[in-house]
Amino acid sequence: MIFSENGDILVWESESGPGMTYQLPFDSKDDPRWKLLDAARDRLAGATSQDQVIEVVRSAARNVISADGVTFVLRDDNRCHYVEEDAIGPLWKGQRFPMTSCISGWAMMNRQTAVVPDIFADARIPHEVYRKTFVRSLVMAPVGLDAPVAAIGAYWRDKPVISPREVAAVETLAAMVGEAMQRTRAAA
Q1: CB 10 within 8 A of CB 25
Q2: Were 141 and a residue from 5, 112, 113, 145 both cysteine, which residue would form a disulfide, CB within 3.0 to 4.6 Å?
């Protein structure tokens, strides 16, 4: 790992080519979440299948992001398939939704991260689906910005302000996962 002088940019050397550049999502390298993110990066680098990549997200993302829940959503033609989750309450694991009617689909179709501090104040959110859950705010980042194949969602029950560092943590993890997904798909 190499840090820039101001500590805001991190360059990781990648086995698949030149180093990827990520915004440093935490205030210091001593932050415990930094160690968790670094461990997740190592596990992603060793992943040999899509299932292994998904397991890293399920087991590490919630603690790295300090969220009440996370989901991993795969693009399945014109649907979003919620394939895995780790949360304080059940969300949507195993369910499929049209790309055009959920925030994970919006993030993939628009190749943008959605930051939603109040889900009931955002028209992109299917409010009826969320009313049954603890979720009140979220960040949803596409995985694979050029051609998103998935999305990672982070959810909170009481988070009226989502910081740029929290958004960066989700986006950094999504970028790492995108690189791992690309590598494992090419090897398959």
Answers
A1: no
A2: 113
